[in-house]
């Protein structure tokens, strides 16, 4: 297995881990009715628990 294949596998594992972490965070926030605080256009924004999307809009997400 070449270095490029190893890097692709590692990248895939990292992406899977990040998606799972996001899923767990959303589950936790909704369970506790806690807002999600993010930065949008350089401003701090609070998203109510009932408005948090179940998935991200990441560019590498399948359509």
Structure report:
The protein has 63 residues and is α+β, with helices and mostly antiparallel strands. Helices cover 46% and strands 16% of the residues. The protein has one helix and two strands, in the order H-E-E. The protein has one helix spanning 3-31, and strands at 36-40, 43-47. Strands 1-2 form a two-stranded antiparallel sheet. Strand 1 (36-40) and strand 2 form a beta hairpin. It is elongated, with a radius of gyration of 15 Å.
Number of helices: 1
What is the strand tally? 2
Main sheet strand line-up: 1-2
Estimate the helix proportion, in percent.
40-55%
Quote the beta fraction. Answer: 15-25%
Topology as a string of helices (H) and strands (E)? HEE
Helix- and strand-based class? alpha+beta
| Cα distance spanning the termini | 30 Å
What characteristic shape results from the CA principal axes? elongated
List keywords for this structure.
alpha+beta, 2 strands, elongated, two-stranded antiparallel ribbon, 63 residues
